[in-house]
Amino acid sequence: MAILPFLLAPFLASLILTGIHAYLGVHVVERGVIFVDLALAQIAALGATTAILIGMDPHGGGAYWLSLAFTFVGAAIFAFARTRRGHIPQEAFIGIAYSVASAAAILAMSKATGETEHLKDMLVGNILAVSMHDVVKTAILYGVIGLFHYIFRKQFLLISTNPEAAEAQGLSIRFWDFLFYASFGFVVTSSVAIAGVLLVFCYLVVPSVGAMLFADKIGRRLAIGWTMGTLVSGLGVYFSVLLDTPTGATIVCTFGAVLIVMFFIHLLFFHGGKAPALNGATSAENPQDRVVQRHH
User: Fold this and answer.
1) pLDDT of the residue at 2
2) What does the alpha-carbon distance between residue 210 and residue 206 come to, in Å, rounded to a whole number?
3) Cβ contact 46:189 at 8 Å
4) Which among 74, 9, 2, 36 is positioned nearest to 247, based on CA atoms?
5) Where are the alpha helices (DSSP H) in the chain?
6) Measured between alpha carbons, how far is residue 231 from residues 14, 76, 173, 245, 256 in Å?
7) 21 close to 190: Cβ distance less than 8 angstroms
8) What percent of the chain clears pLDDT 90, i.e. is strictly above it?
9) pLDDT tier at 151, thresholds 50, 70, 90
10) Mind listing the domains of the chain with CATH numbers?
11) From the CA atom positions of the chain, what is the Rg in Å?
12) Long-range Cβ pairs for the range 150-156 (8 Å, 24+)
């Protein structure tokens, strides 16, 4: 009981990360750009590393805005990397961006003092050290991003699930993609500073993948993803204190363990039956009908 007040801020930060990333993860999985969060997170980390290299305070405002600027560049690249004919998969550009950003960050770290500690923070963060001020500031920022996505939810959902229909309705795919990835960049830049690259990736992808095992509708996936993220956050933070292990890495491993359990539950209760389709529809189903069905 004595450690509960100490765990309050990290747990609240984990809940905030769960709320926004589980929602964004639904879009990422639908778009088939699974590693976009990892790439943007690494680009944001490269910006933070560059800030350290030129003498900025890694926790100051200057480092944050430089990291955000790097992320906006990545958002523009990913938005314009989507080709109409799809002869070059967008995931290829995302993988290249991640590899180059990772290598550049390592090169920058080699010229900075305390590079080992900086590299560790970049990968797994230090969510246990988050303050209530950081929690409130992050909650306000994510609330604004969430409101933005709620207002334009129809455009974002249609482009994520059926870009052909969106284009037929006159929507500019690249413009809305840039807005999506730019808002994504705000989230990722703040999340990496709190939780590190690996944990941010897990919060984005693992709840969505776990939810897809049991649901094919957006609302149900969000409910399952948010529930899973909340439980894993609480368990991960508690285990990290109990076992005296790095919090970010502990939560990542807890995510993996819980996903394995969910997979076996899925096999026990759904194997052999009609499991939910990953995209909520068969390939023969009309894509427009799939979008209408999901809205219901």
Assistant:
1) 60
2) 6
3) no
4) 9
5) 4-31, 36-53, 61-81, 90-110, 115-124, 132-151, 153-161, 163-168, 173-195, 197-212, 218-243, 247-270, 287-295
6) 10, 35, 36, 18, 13
7) no
8) 11
9) very high
10) 4-295 (1.10.3470.10)
11) 19
12) 152/176, 152/179, 156/27, 156/180
The C-alpha atoms of residue 41 and residue 185 are separated, in whole angstroms, by 8
| pLDDT recorded at residue 283 | 40
How open is the CA angle 209-162-146, to the nearest 5 degrees? Answer: 60
Token look-up 């550009």 returns 93
Cα gap 40→44, rounded to integer Å:
6
- Burial of 140 by CB count in 10 Å (0-12 exposed, 13-18 middle, 19+ buried)? exposed
Cα separation, 160 vs 183, in Å, equals 15
